[in-house]
Amino acid sequence: KQEAAAKTKLVVGADATFAPFEFTDPATGKYTGFDVELIEAICEEAGYELDFRSMGFDGLIAALQTNQIDAVISGMTITEERQKVVDFSEPYYKSGLVVAVQAKNNDIKSFEDLKGKKIAVQSGTTGALHAEKATDKDKITYFTSSDQAMLELKNGAVDAVVMDYPVTAYFIQQGNDDVKMVGEILSAEEYGIAVPKGKTETLEKINAALKTLKENGKYAEIYKKWFGEEP
Ligand code: GLN
């Protein structure tokens, strides 16, 4: 083990409004979630001192590009578009998008039913891109956080939300039974940890730590804690 003073700091950005991946624990006021515990374990394994910072999701890539942060773990989907401007670790979580509507809605049953409907999304996300394929852009309301988009749906100001499946499922499970998911999971996505382009040393350390955690059972332990099942 290295001395604390000798540890390199890793400044990690996330949008901590994305439960169960990164959010503020209402009881302790501290950041928690699957991503938070995973990056803590990665830093411990790789000998980094973690400096975790929350910021809006649509500002994370720019923060990496300007080296304000060293890495992003934020339920961020590995996409070709993003791979042009940042580098991603090996995938660490399989995800997908889903359509959410009010529980009393019997009109929208799938993604195809969204044409002409009002949709709330989180800015800069894969969910926003999918919503833009489903309806006209002027029917879409963009929010900084996923909570705000969900609130808009609960309030009945929009007809639907397009968002990551695990986040939507967790939200409903947290007592929001006035919301339901409809149709199939829309896309096969994988989350990765992003670093600025060309930061191969950081990326290699993150990948090596992730591999160790998958091999030694720590990844499975964290996964089980948050998702109640084996990865
Ligand atoms: N997985 C989605 C994306 O990468 C949403 C991520 C998020 O909102 N934190 O665009």
Structure explained in plain terms:
- With 231 residues, the protein is an alpha/beta fold.
- 33% of the residues lie in helices and 24% in strands.
- The protein contains 8 helices and 14 strands.
- It has helices spanning 34-46, 60-65, 80-83, 126-134, 146-154, 165-173, 200-215, 218-227; strands at 8-14, 23-24, 31-32, 48-54, 71-72, 86-88, 93-95, 97-102, 119-122, 140-143, 160-164, 179-182, 189-191, 194-196.
- The protein has a 5-stranded mixed beta sheet with strand order 10-9-11-8-12. A 3-stranded parallel beta sheet has the order 4-1-5.
- α4 (126-134) links the parallel β9 and β10 (140-143).
- α1 (34-46) packs antiparallel against α8.
- Residues 15, 18, 57, 74-77, 122, 125-126, 146, 164 line the site of glutamine.
- Glutamine is lined by residues 15, 18, 57, 74-77, 122, 125-126, 146, 164.
- It is found in: Cell envelope.
- Pfam families: SBP_bac_3.
- Residues 9-230 form the Solute-binding protein family 3/N-terminal domain.
